[in-house]
Amino acid sequence: MSAAGPPFGERARRRHERTARVARARHAGTRVDRSMTEQRADERSAPSERRRNRAGGRIASFVPHGHRLTLEDWSARHRLFKIVLALHLPAIVCYALLRDFSLTHGLAAASPSLLLFCAAALPGARRVRALAASLGLLTCSVVLVHLSDGLGPMYFHFFVVVALIALYEDWSVYALAIAFVFVANLALRFLVTAAALTDNERHSALVLAALHAGFIVALAGAQVLFWHYNQQERRRTERYRQQLYEGQQSLMSRLEETDRIRSDLVATVSHEFRTPLAGIRGNLLTVRRRRHRMTDAQLDDLLDSALNSSERLSRLLENMLTAATATGIEDNPVADLPEVVLNALGTLRNASLATAVSVDLPDHLPVRMSKEALHQVVANLVDNALVHSWPGAPVRLIAGRVGDEVVLRVRNPGPDLDKETIARLFEPFTQRDGSATRPTDGAGMGLYVVRRLVEVHGGRLRMTSDNGEINVEVDLWAAEISLPTADPTHLPQLPDLPALRAEGLVHDPQPVVPLPTPPMGDRRPPRQDRLDRRYLDADDGRLTPLGDHGATGPSGRRQASAWRTDDPWRADGSWPQADGSWPRADGPWRTEHASPADGSWSADDFPLDRSG
């Protein structure tokens, strides 16, 4: 025996739910189909709609809208309309009397124009008042033609009124006036000539009326063209005026900047010159008055202090002279970067700070820049890094060749700088701390001179500051390596250059093929290779710390230990601890680049960011 089924009410409820679900699904599908159909229809109609919008936009830009008139100009033109319309009112009454009409007839003929004159005189929207004044003058034309019984010369009144309405420079007002004149002209001709002329004469009169109306339309077209070219000239004048205003503002800002630089120059030069001169004078006076009571060591200290002050003056004058005269370069200048770097480090103003500089350079790295200019670039960059670095922290200088460029990078730990401060540091007479009581001396010309020299030689200069490290990168054109040509069959082997490793690609070190001489006056072309290249050691792919291999590294890299007595990474000559920190008297200074394993530097520690 089968089990009993659900009751009838339950079966009906379930059947109703199934029917409702099917209906909802069908309705949803219908809605989806309808929406897709509407979407496809919209897509098909979109091009025509865009074409209509473009056509409407061209027409709208061709005809005037009246909003370009200032309120003062529009008020003056509207005042002229009201005067002309007011003069027409008594003229209509007088003309009616001359045509043997009664005074009442003349007043009735002038009353519509009087009402429109009152509407034009009342305050309101500009377009409404313009329409009232225009219709008032056109009504005067119709009344005069009617009072003259269709006299031909009286139709010229329409031409004068239409030309006068064009002063509003509003297409809606003008279009209404043209339509009114066209219809009124035909209607008047028909009413005047309907009773007195035959069919042929009436036909000729209507043709003449249509001809007059056609001339009115032609006048309207000519007036629209005049409007269009007048607006173009007005827009051109406005653009020239805006350019002149912007040029004047730019000139004013440049004059203000020049005045600021002049004031800063006077204040800075007076301060920077007075301080070393006072030191020189004081030291020399002390030597002159007390030399018989001073030891040789004391005399040497005073003379060294005077010499340092004179070197400070010489450096300031040299930077100022370079900034003023750095406008051109020599023909085919070539300088060896490692040689210039060692010479610049040997002439630092504070020889004790030179031991805090580590150098990682190949044996030969020629660049297209004169030795004097390159010396100033390197000296100013290193001097700036030493002065503004944390006390006792190392300054690292690395360089190498990437394609047709030589990249010089100077890194030093220091306080983080924002983008505004970085951009301001490369302006003349600008320092991070501009107060008169700043702990460091200088006129703020070093980085500005670097920028000027690099730009003149077609290079690029970038500065970044992040995570307590300041990085300055200079890109210069690479130069050919001069080789003897006496015996072409026995050319000396090219020196090893640092190998270049790209992400995922390892290239064997090969001699660099000399490139054609680029135009130094132009900016360099955009780089074709934007891979993130890193300098690696030619032997094991690592950058070893300075002083680990003596005067030269395992790959022939020039080391700085040949001209210093201790290691730059620590004041006592030791290497970083296992956690990568240097313990100091005034607190620990930690670097993220120390390798705790063997104290070596990996290629990831000093990447060359080629992203620009």
Automatic annotation (TrEMBL):
Enzyme class, first EC level, given as a word: transferase
Annotated GO biological process: osmosensory signaling via phosphorelay pathway
Coiled coil: none
GO MF, one annotated term: phosphorelay response regulator activity
Residue segments, region Disordered: 1-57, 508-612
Pfam families given in the database record: HATPase_c, HisKA
UniProt cross-references to InterPro entries, sorted A to Z: BphY/WalK/GraS-like, HATPase_C_sf, HATPase_dom, His_kinase_dom, HisK_dim/P_dom, HisK_dim/P_sf, Sig_transdc_His_kin-like_C
Sequence ranges of Basic and acidic residues compositional bias: 30-50, 521-542
Keywords: ATP-binding, Kinase, Membrane, Nucleotide-binding, Phosphoprotein, Transferase, Transmembrane, Transmembrane helix, Two-component regulatory system
Catalyzed chemical reaction(s): ATP + protein L-histidine = ADP + protein N-phospho-L-histidine
SMART domains linked: HATPase_c, HisKA
Histidine kinase domain residues: 268-480
Subcellular location: Cell membrane
Transmembrane portions of the chain: 80-98, 104-123, 130-148, 178-198, 204-229
Record-level GO cellular component terms: plasma membrane
Enzyme Commission no: 2.7.13.3
Keyword Transmembrane attached: yes
Ranges annotated as biased composition (Basic residues): 12-29
Protein name, per record: Sensor-like histidine kinase SenX3
Organism: Frankia nepalensis
